Amino acid sequence: MMNTVQFLIIAAIVLGNGLLFVWRSKSKQGQTSNTRMLRGIGYGLVGLTAFLLLVGVLQHFDEQAHAIGH
Fold first, then answer.
1. Cα distances (Å, whole numbers) of residue 36 to 44, 50, 56
2. What is the pLDDT of residue 14?
C-alpha cells in the first residue's frame, strides 16, 4: 500500500501533466481538433487527480474510524 508521500507525488505529477496539456492547447493558434483533444486530455487528468485525492482522503478517514487491520 502506498504511503501518503508517494500518493501526493504521483498526484502532483498527474496534475502537472494535466495542466501542461491544458496550457499547451491554449498556447496553440487556432481551434483545431488537436487543440480540443489536448484540452480534453488535460481536463480529464485534472478531474482524475481531484477524484483520486478525494478517494485518498476518504480512505484515510475510513481507516482511522474503523481501525482496519485488527
1. 12, 21, 30
2. 93
For 13-66, give the secondary structure using H, E and C: HHHHHHHHHHHHHHHCCCCCHHHHHHHHHHHHHHHHHHHHHHHHHHHHHHHHHH
List of residues 6+ apart from 46 with CB closer than 8 A: 15, 18, 19, 22
Instruction: Please report, to the nearest 10 degrees, the dihedral formed by the alpha carbons of residues 2, 4, 8, 14 taken in order.
Output: 20
DSSP 8-state code for residue 1: -
Cα(59)–Cα(14) distance, rounded to whole angstroms? 20
pLDDT of residue 46: 94
Q: What is the pLDDT of residue 62?
A: 78
Rounded Cα distance, 62 and 69, in Å:
12
Q: Contact, 45 vs 14, CB < 8 A?
A: yes
